[in-house]
Amino acid sequence: MRARNKLTMLQIRHLAPGKYNDGGGLWLQIRPDGGGQWFLRVTVHGRRREMGLGGLQDVSLAEAREEADRWRSVVRANKDPIKERARIRRELERDDHTLASITDQAFRARQAELKGDGKAGRWMSPLNMHILPKLGRVPIEMIDQQDIKNSLAPIWHDKVSTARKAMNRLNIVMRYAAAMDLDVDIQVTEKAKALLGTQRHVTRNIPAVHWRDVPAFYASLSEPTVGNLALRLLILTAARTSEIRYCHESEIQDDVWVIPPDRMKAGKEHRIPLPRQALELLEIAQMWRRSGFFFWSRRAVISDAAMSSIMKRRGMEERPHGFRSSFRTWCAEATDTPREVAEIALAHSVGGKVEQAYRRTDYLDQRRDLMQRWADHVTGGE
């Protein structure tokens, strides 16, 4: 029988870089940087296998010997210790009932109904930011209303929308866990709301530049930077920032910008007739185009804050999304545009499901005239 327990802790402290045998297949490899790694060398099914047992800093000599004994017994049972360890880990993961694990499963179950399969991360974002860092490792069956209250209390009155989304999505996760027959309280989020109290925050509309002042602001964006060009196109089209950021050359069909469903908030294709000024702007934006995207910055499309930062630097309270309001108010106050045409120009749903089912038009021709009139107003008739 081969000798075992050859090494001592005193020896280990003074070992030079190299591999050292403790006996019975247990080895210690010392790296040049002074760190070390335990591994077990065994032969199973006629193959030599080397199985890592952890770093010297985390696993003591005694612990390494204990782990080696454990996996030698697996070899004696004619099993591959590496595959057996992987199998055990898979079983543990399958039985992982932490909040983080169940949240991931609940999210994957809902992906098909989320825009873009939820790849943008917006569904998970409130949970990732405010719930999972504090409660992710807690078994979901142990989570109570006090835990949820403590997690959301810091933002309950200050970030009302985010807190509400986090609570609603946590409720979905809890109900998913209940469907798995886990012993969870499906009323726990309602109880947490009772502890947190009524949210005091008053929702404010996003500040918007008055439609009469839009031409002056538009003119101030004369320098052809990628941010200015993107913001100008946003104003001309009354589109959302995300739609502008990911504007791709394949979406431009003659004088119509066709935005696919997976990029729209409502999940439906939206056509925007492009006025002459917008087409000219896209020609200028060619200098920034990369991988087909018009508004590229370094390694990706411009960030979500690229356009709003232009207005922030000027000390403005208004934000890019407010130009949609500017456009809509102009439609109401300066034109005789029918309500449904103006709303569809903003990609809003108009009427109930029955009305939508019977209305098979998106008023493209009427909107082509409307968007050109808006562009003429914005540019001062340039």
TrEMBL record:
Q: Family assignment?
A: Belongs to the 'phage' integrase family.
Provide the taxonomic classification: Bacteria, Pseudomonadati, Pseudomonadota, Alphaproteobacteria, Rhodobacterales
Q: Name one GO biological process term.
A: DNA recombination
In alphabetical order, the GO MF annotations are: DNA binding
Protein name in UniProt:
Integrase
Start and end residues of each Tyr recombinase domain: 204-371
Which key words tag this protein in UniProt? DNA integration, DNA recombination, DNA-binding
Q: Which Gene3D superfamilies match?
A: 1.10.150.130, Integrase, DNA-binding domain (3.30.160.390), Intergrase catalytic core (1.10.443.10)
Question: Pfam family of this protein, just one?
Answer: Arm-DNA-bind_3
Q: Which InterPro entries match?
A: DNA_brk_join_enz (IPR011010), Integrase-like_cat_sf (IPR013762), Integrase_catalytic (IPR002104), Integrase_DNA-bd_sf (IPR038488), Integrase_DNA_bind_dom (IPR025166), Integrase_recombinase_N (IPR010998), Phage_int_M (IPR053876), Phage_Integrase (IPR050808)
